[in-house]
Please model this.
Amino acid sequence: MIRIEHLSKRYGDTVAVNDLDFEVRPGVVTGFLGPNGSGKSTTMRIIMGLDAPTSGSATINGHRYRELKAPLREVGALLDAKAVHPGRTARNHLRALAASNQIPRKRVEEVLEFVGISSVADKKVGGYSLGMSQRLGIAAALLGDPQVLLFDEPVNGLDPEGIRWIREFFRTLAMEGRTVFVSSHLMSEMAVSADQIIVIGRGHFITQGSVDQLTASVGGSVLVRSADNAALRTALRASGAVVEEANDRALTVSGVDAEGVGVVALAEGIALSELTPQRASLEEVFMDLTADAVEYSSKKEPFDHE
Amino acid sequence: MSDVTLASVTRAEWIKFRTVRSTIMGYVVTFALTLGLGALITTAIRGHWQTMDPLSKLAFDPVSTSLGGTLFAQFAVGVIGILFITSEYASGSIRTTLAATPRRVQVVAAKLLVLVSVTVVVAEVVVFATFLMGQRIFSGVVPTASLSSGSVFRSVALGGIYLTLLAVLGFGLGLILRQQSAAISVFTSLLLIVPIVIFVLPQSWQTSISRYEPSALGHAMMSVTPPLDMFGAWTATLLLIVYVAIVLVIGVALLLRRDA
Model:
């Protein structure tokens, strides 16, 4: 369980994270979604005790990271896959990490085997592809068999096979009852890999919920095809709905649900050939949500200086 | 299984220290420079001894002269110390290190333990070997020194301590500056450029200031009878320790305050 309480981080005048407040629960994969530069990595670095918050706190199972006695056995993290001395081999990198937290050496071999880089473990990390580095980073995160795991943009650089592997892997970790916190700027990725999603934009909390909840929060529209589009459009507008021309002689109606469209059509005596409720795609939801956050910030700033 | 301790972090740092090529290369260069230049200097002096003026002969110190190569080897050990910390910042692995060891003072203490214990062994071996080689080259023509004399033994042993302290100085500068090129520039400036700057000052200031330079302290440490305008060997050692300690304290304070 990760608990973020009123967390803020400023670098000089720049606000990287502003009053974030949420929980990441065990047993599910929690996605941390936001555009690039929205404060995801900063939040993760604060959770890991690397950056100090300006105010508020981040705790893991009730403890601040710096209080943990053997952190690698409680929290595993992949923050930056390329953050390994390029001249050192993967095996030696992991052996040093294991030694620092008194993790048995045989565990190094286990995690190397698990992520599938045993055969290149004695090669210098500088020669690794991004995908191989990601696997090494995952191995390092798993070294202490921790209950809490953080992954910052883990999918970057992975090939399709690797992406499928990592999704199943997150799922497995969550099913084992672990806390899995995964950041991404890709809504499509989160939609398939995360159970719960926390959305932030420009350091501000935007919303939190399951994929379904997020989609439902942004109202959908209804696609209508009829014998007399022009008359239907007039009638729908009169009832207060927003009507737009869609492709192929259809109308996109919002502000009223499918049932409402049916009632209006019946009253006008117009035969419908199609009536399809449309859900907003997750991508649209994301754009919608974060566009608001961007507008909010840019509108707010001039007033701050008054 | 138990917690993160200074011993466990030291084991980790020891693995990290010996598993990169730059460390090994640094010590090889230290060896080659001290021993090789020592051979060159002593051979040259042996060749010119008959024609040297009496005053130079009077001031001749067989110990510090044979250890002249340390003036160059000091850069090699300095770079070892610098790289031990700046390479972590260059690759970003400092974050992995600090996540594994959140008590940052432990990281510095462990790195220092590894750096000092390895460097002191290598440096003592190289200075004693160079000294013995130098006296062999001198023997028969130039006056020689023997380790059976307490002050000679002290001068040679302090040569190794000087190199070790400079490795720690490099490490401390790396901790403060976090960037390899910046740390190497400052390190070289302290050893080479400060003396030149002082040389521009009025004569009366020069004599009182120049003995505080790190390289002048090194010369005093390695001299059987340090020149009159220099500090005594032990005072020089103590001063150099104070310099290094100040740099380290600043480095640690910054490490504790800064975001990684």
